């Protein structure tokens, strides 16, 4: 009897164990990510009436769907949209939604391989009854403004249509009336734009042979179309003013005297059919127009608010060989015949002169002369030759801001070769000009950016020096007040304002008992600024944050009010302002304003409200979640925002209450998560660095975490990472190989510590912060001290490669794209921009200054390469051969040094890849290899062959074929 009971007990126990095991969820593998379903974060839209939220959902690799969800009930529609994410567009009245459907992923890949053109479809949905109309092979589309009776659909050029610069750009434009479903076709349309209300459509025609080309205006109520200008020319860049009462555009004509088409700016105003006001300006007869320049095809073209001035860009306009230089432009106010006549006279004069030269000497034809392929680097170059090469297209397309005043028929040049950067302020009364020329050479060397700031009167072009040798590195922005008469700026730890009319300067923060120097910014920048949130809509106040509290300060600086009531005491800071009113250009205190809040001690976040007319922030909520994306329906008090934490993916919530109360969840993100083992959450660890600073680290728990059990741990580093404590890590194929979620799902803990830097000791600072963080994590009882690894990419890769020269606390390390020799890296080229690395060292992440010749000990002390003999940690090194940020030679130098010392190291290089891995097959390959590497060293799994013995190049294809996952 006892034997039977014992057998029954063992059977039940065994059955229970089998049942528990059967309920265990599998870890997430890299193979699973291809099918991982999630909501795309940047493709959401809220209808103006707040009744509908649209988002895109689907697998990482595969075809997607667009979801239309009613915000007040459970009504939902799903639409297949192919392999490319898109964003729905709602009509202004919220009755219609339109969106693209792209080819399916498999079709797109096949078409790309066969080099066949791809086309999109357009779906227009009637939301009250879900009736749908579909348009094939579309190029773009747009609803007709605030009176959305129409949708315009532009179609792609038909197969076999002529291509090239001289080919006509116009295609069919369909005007579809939404209520009656009637269609009107306009042929050969190259550009179009509705005005704000939608009662007018401006469009350009670009037809074969330029027959009938012009700019046209259609009255959408009557259908009457007016030809505003016709010519053998091309028209482009239509831009309506905000009120929808006027617009400007460009016109281009070929001229035999010039190498490129010659542009004019057209201004249309006082719309009244055939009596509509029109001005065409080219500068051809303007003695003030700069010689050798013409209106640029790349510059912004727009009206001033008062319609007194046209703004545009000018650029170099080259004459053909044998043509004389001149102000140069096309038809405009002067007639076509007179321009041809003038051109002929100039050409004749030049030909005569050229003939004299030819008689004196007969050089070879230029085409017959072989030219050297050479680049000359001069020590006085303000920009490196490599930078000029990278920026060549930008330089070629650069346009200098200029204006034409109608009242006095006056051309005004705002920007020039020394003052290239000009910002035109609101109301177009003034502009700010940035003259870098006195400091450009030194700025390019040490990165400490200085500029002379000029005030430009847009009425006459008069320039007045406002700030000499202004230090931009501390704070880049110089915001205008909405009235265009005030600016604010930061200098030497304080904020100021300037009345541009009187030139009077006012100290804004002098009387405020707080520091406006960013205490968390430890780059080698002098007194970096705290955030400036901008001006009030009425231009009476500026909103500036100290390190925690938000201040409302009068424009003259005489009165300052803290809106957050000493939040510094609890380390709660106003983290940012939500701009939820799309038509507002500033903070309108007559409307409720919303702000993101963050507690630096607990890492909690939330949202605060500044009520209309109120003077203190109301904290609506703050907890252990991340909140973002707050938006408001344009016409109704309907709000949506996202909520997430370390184990719960972002979900969209909706509330109809101004205080965001009783928010309901609309989405169901990451439905596959429930099928896999998942992290058990996150712990916030406080610790003290070896420099004596109190810091924090985030310790993400492994799936199935059990109290008292220790786990293998990956330490992931960059700079300060605990701000993301409550953020969700979406499973994905990463550009650097590491995905937090994959590792926690596979039984790893992940430690992410904060690093605080001391100038001239970036590497040693990492040592002083990271090692105490690891020890503090071990002390929690969660981390297995014998199985801790470290990984970082780029700057994190540098610190990883340095840390393993200073400690043996890590059992394995993976460093992606690391700089390893501070001395050689200092003067190499950052190929992605063409500039030298020296500014990065002396004014940014490198935190070393000045050059190594005057700071040799610091450069060597913080260079991994000079301590390479001390490395005992097995290292997986990633460095791609086209890395444009950290030169490939840095990885090669470290690899060869370790190899020479017979240290365990493998370097992986993906051909043609830049600083991060971009191609999906390479992302997958490296992610798998990194996990294999850590599994071997921290979990005792068998070593992969590529680590154990290496792979000969001739065997690489076979090696890839044999791998289960590519």
Automatic annotation (TrEMBL):
Where does the secretion signal sit in this chain? Answer: 1-22
| GO process annotations (BP) | proteolysis
Which residue ranges does the record assign to the Peptidase S9 prolyl oligopeptidase catalytic domain? 770-940
The yes or no answer to whether the keyword Transcription is present is: no
Instruction: State the UniProt keywords alphabetically.
Output: Aminopeptidase, Hydrolase, Protease, Signal
**Keyword Cell wall biogenesis/degradation found:** no
| GO MF terms held by the record | aminopeptidase activity; serine-type endopeptidase activity
Pfam families in UniProt: Peptidase_S9
Q: Where on the tree of life does the source sit, at the highest rank?
A: Bacteria
Question: What is the protein named?
Answer: Dipeptidyl aminopeptidase/acylaminoacyl peptidase
Q: What organism, scientifically named, is this protein from?
A: Parapedobacter luteus
Q: What is the lineage of its organism?
A: Bacteria, Pseudomonadati, Bacteroidota, Sphingobacteriia, Sphingobacteriales
């Amino acid at each position: 009897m006892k034997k039977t009971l014992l057998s029954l007990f063992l059977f039940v126990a065994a059955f229970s164990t089998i049942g528990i095991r059967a309920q265990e969820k599998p870890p997430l593998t890299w193979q699973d990510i291809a099918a991982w379903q999630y909501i795309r974060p940047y493709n959401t839209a809220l209808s103006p009436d707040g009744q509908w939220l649209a988002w895109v959902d689907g697998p990482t690799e595969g075809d997607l769907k667009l979801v239309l969800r009613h915000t007040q009930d459970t009504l939902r529609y799903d639409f297949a949209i192919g392999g490319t994410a898109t964003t729905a567009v709602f009509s202004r009245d919220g009755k219609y939604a339109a969106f693209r459907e792209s080819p399916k992923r498999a079709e797109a890949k096949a078409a790309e391989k066969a080099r066949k053109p791809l086309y999109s479809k357009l779906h227009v949905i009637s939301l009250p009854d879900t009736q749908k109309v579909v348009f094939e092979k579309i190029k773009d589309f747009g609803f007709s403004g605030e009176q959305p009776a129409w949708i315009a659909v532009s179609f792609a050029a038909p197969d076999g249509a002529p291509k090239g610069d001289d080919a006509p750009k116009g295609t069919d434009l369909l005007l579809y009336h939404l209520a009656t479903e009637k269609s009107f076709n306009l042929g050969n349309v190259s550009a179009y734009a509705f005005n704000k209300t939608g009662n007018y459509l401006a469009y350009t025609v670009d037809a074969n042979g330029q027959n009938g080309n012009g700019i046209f205006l259609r009255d959408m109520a009557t259908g009457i179309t007016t030809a505003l200008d016709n010519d053998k020319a091309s028209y482009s860049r239509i831009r309506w003013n905000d009120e929808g009462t006027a617009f400007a555009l460009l016109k281009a004509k070929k001229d035999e005297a010039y190498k490129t088409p010659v542009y004019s700016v057209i201004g249309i105003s006082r719309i009244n059919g055939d009596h509509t006001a029109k001005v065409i300006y080219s500068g051809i007869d303007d003695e003030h127009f700069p010689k050798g320049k013409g209106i640029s095809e790349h510059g912004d073209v727009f009206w001033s608010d008062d319609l007194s001035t046209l703004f545009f860009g000018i650029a170099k306009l080259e004459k053909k060989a044998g043509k004389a230089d001149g102000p140069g432009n096309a038809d405009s106010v002067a007639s076509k015949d007179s321009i041809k006549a003038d051109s002929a006279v100039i050409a004749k004069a030049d030909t005569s002169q050229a003939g004299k030269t030819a008689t004196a000497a007969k050089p070879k034809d230029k085409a017959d002369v072989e030219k050297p392929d050479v680049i000359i680097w001069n020590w006085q170059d303000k920009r490196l030759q490599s930078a000029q090469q990278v920026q060549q297209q930008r330089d070629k397309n650069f346009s200098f801001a200029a204006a034409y005043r109608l009242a006095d028929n006056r051309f005004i040049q705002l920007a020039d070769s020394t003052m290239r950067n000009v910002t035109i302020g609101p109301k177009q009364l003034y502009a700010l000009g940035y003259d870098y020329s006195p400091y450009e050479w030194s700025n390019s060397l040490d990165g400490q950016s200085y500029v002379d700031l000029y005030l430009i009167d847009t009425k006459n072009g008069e320039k007045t020096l406002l700030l000499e040798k202004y230090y931009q590195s501390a704070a880049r922005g110089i915001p205008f007040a909405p009235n265009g008469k005030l600016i604010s700026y930061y200098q030497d730890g304080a904020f100021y304002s300037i009345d541009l009319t009187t030139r009077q300067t006012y100290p804004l923060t002098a009387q405020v008992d707080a520091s406006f120097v960013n205490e968390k910014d430890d780059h080698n920048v002098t007194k970096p600024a705290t955030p400036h949130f901008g001006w009030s809509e009425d231009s009476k106040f500026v909103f500036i944050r100290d390190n925690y509290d938000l201040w409302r300060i009068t424009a003259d600086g005489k009165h300052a009010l803290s809106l957050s009531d000493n939040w510094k005491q609890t380390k709660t800071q106003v983290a940012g302002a939500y701009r939820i009113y799309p038509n507002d250009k500033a903070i309108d205190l007559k409307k409720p304003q919303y702000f993101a809040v963050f507690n630096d001690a607990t890492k909690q976040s939330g949202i605060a409200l500044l009520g209309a007319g109120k003077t203190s922030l109301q904290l609506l909520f703050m907890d252990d979640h991340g909140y973002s994306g707050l938006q408001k329906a344009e016409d109704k008090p309907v709000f949506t925002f996202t909520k997430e934490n370390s184990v719960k993916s972002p979900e969209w919530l909706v509330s109809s209450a101004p205080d965001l109360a009783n928010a309901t969840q609309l989405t169901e993100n990451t439905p596959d998560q429930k099928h896999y083992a998942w992290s058990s959450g996150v712990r916030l660890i406080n610790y003290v660095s070896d420099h004596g600073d109190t810091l924090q680290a985030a310790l993400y728990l492994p799936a199935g975490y059990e109290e008292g059990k220790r786990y293998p741990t990956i330490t992931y580093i960059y700079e300060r990472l605990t701000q993301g404590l409550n953020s969700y890590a979406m499973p994905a194929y990463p550009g650097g190989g590491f995905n937090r979620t994959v590792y926690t799902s596979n039984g790893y803990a992940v430690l992410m510590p904060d690093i605080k830097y001391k100038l001239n000791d970036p590497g040693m600072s990492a040592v002083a912060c990271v090692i105490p963080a690891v020890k503090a994590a071990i002390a929690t009882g969660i981390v297995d001290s014998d199985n801790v690894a470290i990984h970082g990419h780029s700057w994190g890769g540098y610190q990883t490669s340095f840390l393993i020269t200073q400690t043996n606390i890590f059992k394995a390390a993976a460093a992606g794209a690391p700089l390893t020799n501070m001395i050689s890296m200092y003067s190499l080229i950052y190929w992605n921009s063409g500039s030298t690395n020296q500014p990065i060292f002396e004014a940014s992440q490198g935190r070393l200054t000045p050059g190594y010749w005057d700071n040799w000990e610091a450069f060597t002390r913080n260079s991994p390469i000079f301590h390479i003999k001390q490395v005992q940690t097995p290292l997986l090194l990633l460095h791609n051969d086209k890395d444009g940020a950290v030169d490939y030679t840095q990885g090669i130098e470290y690899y060869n040094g370790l190899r020479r010392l017979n240290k365990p190291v493998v370097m992986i290089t993906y051909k043609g890849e830049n600083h991060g891995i971009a191609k999906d097959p390479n992302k997958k390959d490296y992610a798998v290899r990194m996990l294999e590497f850590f599994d071997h060293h921290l979990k005792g799994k068998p070593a992969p062959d590529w680590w154990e013995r290496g792979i000969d190049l001739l065997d690489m294809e076979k090696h890839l074929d044999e791998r289960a996952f590519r």
